[in-house]
Amino acid sequence: MGAGFFERLFQLLQHEGSWIPLAVVLSTAITTALSIGFWFGRYFPKGNGPQPTDSIVGALNAQIQVCTTHASELEEKLDEALAREAKNDKLHEAILDDESELWRLHEPKPPAGYSIPINVSRPKIIVIANNKGGVGKTTLTAGLAAYFEKKKKRVLLIDLDYQGSLTNWMIRSADIYIPPNQAYRLSLANKLIDGTAKDHWQAEVLRNGQNGHGLANAQLITSDYTLTQFETKLMLRWLRNGAEQDVRYNLAEILLGPYVQDKMDGFDIVLIDAPPRLTTGAIGALVASTHLVVPTILDPLSAETVGSFLRQAWALRGRLNPGLELAGVVGTMTPARPLGQDLGVPEQAALGIVNRGIREWQASTHVFNADIQDIAAIKNCAGRENPYFSSGKAGDMFDAFGDELGGRISL
Ligand SMILES: Nc1ncnc2c1ncn2[C@@H]1O[C@H](COP(=O)(O)OP(=O)(O)OP(=O)(O)O)[C@@H](O)[C@H]1O
Ligand SMILES: [Mg+2]
Predict the structure, then answer these.
(1) Are 163 and 282 in contact (CB under 8 A)?
(2) Does the pLDDT of residue 332 top 80, yes or no?
(3) Domain span at residue 138?
(4) 220 and 272 in contact (C-beta within 8 Å)?
(5) How far does residue 355's CA lie from ligand 2's centre (Å)?
(6) Looking at the whole model, is its pTM more than 0.85?
């Protein structure tokens, strides 16, 4: 567009006939230009108002915000998963390495109102325990029960062994028959370790059998095969959620309760037969006892396990029951010989190993002078008759041991 364009326009304006179409063309051009300007301004505004990119940037920012929140949530979940894995690893190691570690995984949480340590218990509570099986725990418990009964003590026997040997043995020697429809009478220990016996005390009352060799004033908390599964369930529940009820204190709470402590109707002595493992019941027994008696066969292998068992018991004691005292280690099934005769050389050597093991308890001279010899009369009465009554010699051996134990625990 140059001078030519304006000359031409001037010529057109001089020509009257072109005014009207020219006006139409010009007004159309102006209107179109204004419209374009308006719409352009509307969609592509300038200045401080919102820019077209603002909405895109805003959307992106919102997305970034969502991603950041999501990432921190994932990070939290990852931390939780790592903590869970670490806990599981610890649990796994504890199960593989040492059963007692398992029972130390959660901080002690005594039940509300439980402030008295177990060693203020009026009756002495003795747990007969050793992680080694077949060392004479049940035989010793049964013999001691008869010894204390003879001393006119009110005895409470607690069978915490899922094998139920003491239960069968004591019930048979008292001529008690439990019909199948009363099978619950054989599993009273379950109610003890889950704490329900606190509200409803149930024990089997023993009596003299036909041969007069029962325990007429004693009571028995029975156990049977159902205890294993029951204990495992309780343990797993506690491992999963230790913050709830602390299963380790259930038995202690009951034994410190009125049924056991009452001066008139309670007991003078409680004897607990433990299983050869650190089950829920065994832990409950170590937490609930005033004294520990460890029977062992005096051979090198059995003597070695005394040390490892005492190491475990010592660790548990520190954390859960500082009042627990080691009454002592007693030799069982020692070679038969006249009463009062010294042990042979192999047994003396095993005793050396036991004494080294006892150092785990950070004390010394806890081996009983009395021992229980391996005699046929005791073997033959197993499961039928109280070993105390199986022969005069058996009675004498349990008397000697009972006297020494009574002296040690001031009973
Ligand atoms: N002094 C003894 N003389 C002869 N036999 C005995 C003597 N003590 C125990 N026995 C026999 O040894 C076996 C194991 O005894 P007992 O059941 O008392 O051991 P335990 O430690 O309770 O076993 P578990 O760990 O399985 O509970 C039984 O057959 C029992 O009769
Ligand atoms: Mg036993």
Answers:
(1) no
(2) yes
(3) 118-408
(4) no
(5) 24
(6) no
